[in-house]
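Researcher: Here's a chain I'd like modeled. Treat it as a single chain, no partners, no ligands.
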Amino acid sequence: MAQSLVTMTADTVPAADEPSSADLADRLRRLLHARGTSQTELARWIGMDPTALSKCLTGARRWRPDELAAVAAATGVPLGYLRSGRGRAPKLEAGADYRPRAAALDSERRRAQIVAVTADLIARRGIHNVRVADIARQCGTSTGTIHYHFPSKVETLRAALGYYADRLYERLDREFAEATDSTDKLRRLVDVQLPSTGDDVAEWSIWIQSWTEAMLHPELRAEQGRVYARWRDTVVEVVRGCQREGHGPGADAQALASRFTALVDGLAIQVLSGTGDMTAARMRELLLDAFEPHIHLRPAG
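Model: Modeled as a single isolated chain. Structure tokens:
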């Protein structure tokens, strides 16, 4: 790993008994690459936030001892080798069928792991291409355990929808905390909804699949409706915040929110399906005008 990728500050310089962030990251990346394992998968296996793992791998955050121990247990690599690179190096076989060791998890943590894995698989493969055996393999557990938590595929999609909805609101909370005013919150709402990254696409994949399945399975409609209502209410509240700040005070906030959410959904489907020339950048430009002429999101001038 290039040294230029590691920012060494007072908070990230390792102590004498800590591994070098750059060297550790290099060993771990080579290990994951050889075994065909992604950072996202590793984060799920060890119960670590993917963002925190990414920061550890770039030197922006220190590894905690328990996190390194969890990495060693999940990958089957000696902790001493991960920390120092000394000792017998693990045999790295490209393309080998690698399965992580399943740690003993309590029921709540096990369910959270299964939900995260299930959501990721459904997002990438589609609900009808995911088998219970696939979920069990990724979790390092039995199919019986999966059935215990999710008796049907409808339940797995419902859980996946809730999982990605929670992730969306965690991100919105972070974005709103940095916003300067309500119009800035609306701009951040626009950016959060763009299918620009792999995580964004996964979130949209689950959302679009939930619509399709809700058409076929009435038992999914209540959950899909609840998640949609929460999202729309969020938009309405931000619009009303803009109105309290003097932007479009006479406008119908409910109507503006309905226009915006419908436009978001339709444009995202075009981007993801490759319809016409719609791109995430073009989608953003159109969404910035969604509240006109009542609320202006473009810079004045």
